Structure formats: structure tokens, C-alpha cells
Amino acid sequence: MATPQHQCDYGKMPHIDSATPLNEPTDARVAAQTDTRADDDPGAVRSAAESGEAETSEGRDGMGADKTPRQRWMGALARSDGATLEAAWTDLDGVPDYTFLRPAEIGMVMVRARAGGAGRRFNLGEMTVCRCAVRTGDNYIGHAYVAGRDTRHAHYGALFDALLQDPVWYARLKTDLLEKLAASQARRRQALNRKTAATKVDFFTLARAQGVQGGDSS
User: Fold this and answer.
1) pTM score, whole prediction
2) Which pLDDT score is estimated for 117?
3) Which of these ranges, 43-57, 64-78, 80-94, has the smallest mean pLDDT?
4) In degrees to the nearest 10, what's the CA dihedral of 60, 169, 146, 156?
5) Which residue pairs from 122-130 have beta carbons closer than 8 angstroms and sit at least 24 positions apart in sequence?
6) Could you report the per-residue pLDDT of 157-212, keeping only the tens digit for each?
7) Does residue 120 surpass a pLDDT of 60?
8) What CA–CA distance (Å, rounded) separates 47 from 54?
9) Distance separating alpha carbons of residues 164 and 74, to the nearest angstrom
10) Nearest alpha carbon to residue 82 among 148, 164, 165
């Protein structure tokens, strides 16, 4: 059973004052788009989310079918939780060493939405997020942006993002991690849909006929 190569004291992780937004329009499941190899200067490697270019739409089918494989697995990692990802990481053998490009930190981002789901974008409001960036010994860079204040979630999300860019690790983790996360998240969606369906109300308009049978029904 493997243990993380770098232990983190999450009580002492860097923190961004909530009064100072990260100034990065994004959403809770933003998928960073970066070069898969860290051949350039780390400071020059920036995700699409950091440059404000991330697409916030989920895809026409609501499941992100038009996203790249990396965007889909980053979404699955972001919708998971820190405890699940940490347990999955510690169960791995032969994981590469890694260093932090950006230790997990807490801040705020502006969430953008579309009017009517397909109209013009507007600023919906701010939300708390954690972000992290790592570089593995194999020279892959991983990013994570997760909703909330769980720095551990962002830490392991970034590690798995880096690991999944390696074709060898991807072949292994596709079954051992990604498919399990997808199944778990599908069950949660189904449970939520059932709960929502139980409170569904159908509204209809009843047209009252007037002047029927020779008189005004009022």
C-alpha cells in the first residue's frame, strides 16, 4: 500500500482571504485545459480556468458528452470527495514522486450562468473553491478546482489529474477509479431525481366554457 510522497499539514495550508477573489470566472466543475507535459516554465503553465477561458456549459446532453477526456475525468474528480480520493491514492503502488506548483489553497471565484440556460452569460455570484497544482516526477502537471473548503480534495484531485495523463496509469485507473466514481455519482443523481420527482407538481390551465347551453356559466 502506497503512501503520499509528500505529507501535507492541512491545518497550515495557504489561505486566500475571502475578501480577495481569485478573479477567475469559472464554475464548480471547471476543467482546466493545459499542456499534458511540463516542458515549459511552471509559471507559464496556466489552465484555461485561470485565464478565464473555461467553458461553463455542461454539454448539450447535460453530461458533458462534448468535453475532452481530461475535462470529463476532472469533472468526476471534482464531484467526488477528499476522503474517497485519498483512500484511492493510498491503495496505489508505485505512484511517482511529486512537487507542488501551487499548494492547495482556498479562495473565491465568480460563478457565471446563462439566462434561460442558453442566453447571454451573467455573473451569478461568488462561491468558495479550493485549487491545487502539482508536478509529478514523470513531468506531468495536474490541476484541481473543487467547490468548498476541502483542501485535501483539491490536493488529491490534482494528483489524480496528473496521473491520468500518463497512458499507463490511465489504463489502470479508468477501471479502478473513474468507472467507480461515475457509478457512484450516477446513483446519487438517480436518488436526487427520485426525491425531486416525488414533489413534482403539474400545473395546467382549465378553460371554462362560457355561453354553453344557452347561457353564461358565470
Assistant:
1) 0.63
2) 84
3) 43-57
4) 170
5) 123/25, 126/21, 127/28, 128/18, 129/22, 129/26, 129/28, 130/104, 130/105, 130/106, 130/154
6) 999 999 999 999 999 999 999 999 999 999 999 999 999 888 887 776 555 555 55
7) yes
8) 8
9) 10
10) 148
Instruction: Kindly report the average pLDDT of the chain as a whole number.
Output: 75
In the structure, what pLDDT confidence band is assigned to residue 23 with cuts at 50, 70 and 90?
Answer: very low
Distance CA 79, CA 25 (A): 19
Distances 191 to 55, 185, 188, 194 between C-alpha atoms, Å: 28, 10, 5, 5
CA distances from 153 to 71, 77, 82, 84 (A): 17, 9, 4, 9
Query: Do 24 and 53 contact (CB within 8 A), yes or no?
Result: no
Backbone angles phi, psi at 125, to 5 degrees: 160, 175
Q: Please state, in angstroms and rounded to a whole number, the distance separating the CA atoms of residues 177 and 167.
A: 14
